[in-house]
Structures are given as structure tokens and as C-alpha cells.
Here is the input.
Amino acid sequence: MEHYTALSPYLKRRFGCKVYKLSLSAGCTCPNRDGTLGTRGCIFCSGSGEFAASGSASIPEQLEQAKYILGKKAQGAKFIAYFQDFTNTYGAVSRLEPLFLAAMEPDDVVALSIATRPDCLPEDILRMLARLRAKKPVFVELGLQTIHDNTAQYIRRGYPLSVFDDAVQKLHVLEIEVIAHQILGLPGETAEMMAETTRHLGSVHVDGVKLHLLHILRGTDLAREYADGRIQMLELDAYIDILEQCLAVLPPDVVIHRLTGDGAKRDLIAPLWSADKKRVLSAIQKRFEQDGVMQGSALRG
Here is the structure.
């Protein structure tokens, strides 16, 4: 029984084969780091972009590097070109569009995915995304994290909820699919507050959701607060409890791109249980089966 709409089988149904993401870098920065909004980034962000390829390499070189990392799994598969680190629409169209086109060009790349901020989607960028969408499917990932104003200010997100809602609407008009990021376990938020954020994502009809566990990475402002004893981390059982509440209020057609988040092990401070991803996913699946979790179950009349 499928308890939720998982990404991997969804992509296989849609594209007819196994599909992997190839993490790339456009060499962008972020308005929360270059002085436009701030210089320290969001409170949880390490600024390392550790999962993306080297931005100094050309896009064809980055694609090959990412395939090499996948090894034998890449044989016979298709790919999503995924610009992952920082804010990948924060720059001039004249610089960004050639990078995106180069990433989409190979026949085995079936879609383009761009991680960005909803306040970095001006009209010229939207027109560029529409041109790209005419060639292949385009996913835009938006880091909302929470709908609650106090939390958003605490994490230094830098924009109000209305900006996110407006961005989702504009992208949908262009037939661009929206994937929203939500962090579970942000300081000061209850399970009910987290479920409210997930419910909002369903109400604005996002196409996909990444549910991340809050984790503490070295070099972040959050790490200093954790060291001072001001932050309590979720235990695994509590995290799964919250996951179940969030999935229950999410429409079943929304694709779940992630059920947890994991930072680079070399930088992870807490919670250490999150580093054992196989154990975490196994525990989640076991609990879902035990509790009979079904995505969207709380929405049924």
C-alpha cells in the first residue's frame, strides 16, 4: 500500500523509466548573503552548497561529474538537471538562460529543476522560465519553510507569505510546477503550527513538497543558539508524529519529494540520528504501516 505520493515512482510513471537528479551549480549567491537583505543568510544555512557540483566547471562538465557520482545507477536512466545551491534566479537572464539551456540540451535530461526564492522572480525571469518550459518540463523549488510570521522573522527568511503565494500563482499561470520546502521542528512551533503550514501548501495547490527535519550545521547562527542551550531538537518518534499530521492535511495528488532532510555528515551537529538515513526512512515506513497513514486522510468529508 502506498501511504503517500512518493517522488521516485511518480517520476517513473511520468517519464517511463528511472529518473535521477543531477545537482548542478549556476554560481549564484543569495540576497540574504550579498547585502541586499542581509549578509549572514538564513539562520540554518551553512552557505556551503555542499550537494551541488563545482560552479567553476561548465554545465556539460557538471552533468558528467554528477553522472559519474551515480555510477552504474546512471545506466539506462533519465535525469533532471537540478540547480540546487543558493538562489538560482538571482542574476541576469543573459547569464542564467544559457546555463539552463545547456543543462536541458541532452536527450537524457527530461526536465529542469531550479531552486530559488519567491522574491527573486521578476518579470524578465518569469519570461525566461516560460521559454524554458516550452522546451521541457520545469520545476521551481521555493523555500517557504513556514507560514508563521514570527518564525519567518526568526529564521531571517526575508519576505512575507504573500510573496510566496503570489509567486506560486504566477508560476502556475506559466504551467511551471512548484515544489515548496517546509522545515519541521523550527523553534517555537508546535505540531499544529507545522500542520497549518502544510495545509496552506495544499490550499495554494503546490505540485510537490519537500519536508525537511531541522538540523544544526557547523558554522551557522543556529549552531551558536544550540550551543547556548536555546534550541531543543526533535527525537525521531516525535518527528514521525509530526510527519503523519502533515501528510494527513496534504492533498493526495501533491508529490512528496522528501520526508526528511540531512546535512553533510562532516558538518552535522544535531540531531545525530538524522545521519543514518536508511534507519530513519525505515522507521518512517514502519510507523506509517503501523498507524495506517494515508496522505490527505484528514481532508476527506
User: Anything to note?
Assistant: The chain has a mean pLDDT of 93. The first strand starts at residue 19 and ends at 24. The two ends are 22 Å apart (CA to CA).
